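Researcher: Quick sanity check before group meeting.
Model: Go ahead. Protein one:
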Amino acid sequence: MYEVNYHRATSVEEAAALFAKAGDAKFVAGGQTLIPTMKQHLAAPSDLVDLRHITALKGITVSGGQVTIGAGTTHAEVAGSAQLRSACAAICDLAGHIGDPAVRHMGTLGGSIANNDPAADYPAAMVALNAAIRTNKRTLAAEDFFTGLFETALEADEIIVSVSFQAPAKCAYAKFPNPASRYAMAGVFVARGTDGSVRVGVTGAGSSGVFRHSGMERALAANWSTGALDNVSVDENMMLSDIHGDAAYRANLVKVMAKRAVAAAG
């Protein structure tokens, strides 16, 4: 490590002010990505502005089917919320399978989506649930928020405050995890709205990060069943290819995970 100035913010406004006064600052939430990156000397911010102690960024509320989750809420808190499970059990199950207990008790929803790792789980849920992502400056639709591998529409001094979505009639998430990291080699979140509309978010497999699969959405809107996906193709040209699996392998995984998610949703 190297010398860095640490600031503990107690409010979103204070965090923004501390960031503005610093030289080359970074916000840190759970620190599950930034701190290891700093240890490897792949990032060298002059200042860290810690968001973990901001009460306004924590908590889960469910009201009339409308779900709001604070950006500072940990994966363990998402997984363990009985109130959230009654409205959208799939996102609780998703959070409960992120990393290991240490990661789940430190990592936060806001930190995960701000980092937008192409193999992270939450982005698929945010896209499939048509979530609104609120920052200290504006509100963005999930599809507009995620812009590429490790890239989002966030400005450097922008802080995610919360995410919100309407609980769907049915939803589920299925992923094929890398056995070492537990990151998704392919993860699919399916959601059917109360109006019958369907959204499918795919993570871990796309060469440009999280994406919606329109073919699966059309097939499932017409017939909500695993069989509806039999004749839907997944374009290998859109898939990642690396030492863990080539494009053809990941394309097949996407289809398999989609079927598993639909089966789990019921």
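Researcher: Fine. The other one?
Model: Protein two, sequence then structure:
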Amino acid sequence: MKLNVFHRTRYNYATPVSGSYNEAHLQPTSCDGQVCHSFLLRVLPATRLSHYSDFYNNVVHFFEVPEPHDFLNVESTSTVTTGDERLDEGKGVAPLVQLPRLIEWERCYDYLQRSPFVSVEPDVWRLAMDATVGQTDVWQASLAIMRFIHTHFAYVPLSTNVNTHMSEVLELRRGVCQDFAHVMLGMCRTLKIPARYVSGYLYNGPADQLLGSQASHAWCEVFLPGFGWRGLDPTNNQQPNEHYITIGVGRDYADIVPLKGHYRGTQERTMTVDVKVTLAE
């Protein structure tokens, strides 16, 4: 499927600010069956852009606006061809008890630890055990965790924010796609299943009723011996397909924030975000 993506973030400041330094994770990747054909980033006030690849091989754009300004507008447009690499959900992959000796530690170590938004405390382990009762296979256990979160947590827009830790989500039992991804990461990691956070977009076609398509979307990938990284979306209780566009991966949201930075000046500001994903003609 060939898709166009438009993403705009705008900040309006109550009084002019200066010394604004920013990083953007907005460029879709070209890997695992996905191809980014074009990408354009526009920033106003106009400034020079540079980019680099981070530790997790995501493309990061960097820019600064040193002079005083009362707004910041960041727009990205991209065209991407997506693929569908879903795995048979009835398939057995590897016994959970054998996982520690089957995984590739250099690829998976970071995705087995706690991270800024993800906890691996005993209460998370107990929840993971409850969700996977009777499961002995890595893939089947991962699917069980996805289904458990989708069933027992309510999708409620604006019930959390980008700084909400998964421990709070466990208490609330509600949140949005970012929160559900963090909960799944923690539950998988306590069972020694390597799991990483995926940031991207979701195309909601005319006949679809997918949650999380109105803004940036988030889901998880688990590492399966012999099959590599495989995606699971607890928000929609499904494997990612051709409707999903990947921007990048990390331990959690903190590693792949769409736009972050700092500046000198007022804290009074408003932010608006517009995302549109459409079929390419």
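Researcher: One line on it for the slide.
Model: The first helix runs from residue 99 to 102.
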